[in-house]
Input
Amino acid sequence: MTAALIFQEKPMLHVGVDLAKSVFQVAYKDNKTSRLYNRQLTRKQFKQFLIKHQEPLCIGMEACGSAHYWGRVCEKLGHQVHIIPAQTVKFVNSSNKDDRNDAFCIWQAMHLPDIKTVKIRDESNQLLMSLLRLRDLIIKQKTQLQNNLRGCLYELGIICNGGCNSLVDAAQHAAAQSHEENKQWSELIAKICNSAIGLIKGQAKQLQTIDEYISEYTQKNESCSKLMTIPYVGPITAAALYAVMY
Output
């Protein structure tokens, strides 16, 4: 039997990794001694562990923060990576939840038949998803801010029509009118209205900047351009579909 065939038949070492900010828990069973290891490694030690094993490892991680980053790091070093959904790891865990048990459960989950894994995303895809999430957050905060300002004016007997422009006009008019009438609370309403208006305009500018970038991005991206040929699919929807599907 040639050395090449012996190497091919050698089983790949399975390693379960519980990711964290600074200290990782690593669980694996030595193929030669069948001894189970479950130890802590710092970020630097974990990288050294990956570099030290020149033979490809089969590394399992729970789908969580930084999993895609470490998945890319492992793949660049020639290792095979499986990002396992958190529900699968939770199903395997029948003991207390701690780092040692989590790493061991990830290692166990790697041996389940027909296990479903999460696709490792590249940096560009992750950043596009982050930009879309940021856009959603700004829209939610903008809505909350408008509702807050609208409620404040309503308590003063000022009724605003629907729409952001109508709200801004009503707030500016309320601040100016209270100042002209020299009311006791004129400084307060002016402070509230001017602060809220400044934030609303700032959010609108940020949304415009993000939307312009996404529009340019989708025009340059071939897959997004194809998605936009579907009726009623614009740049934002195309970018969201591309981020999820590819």
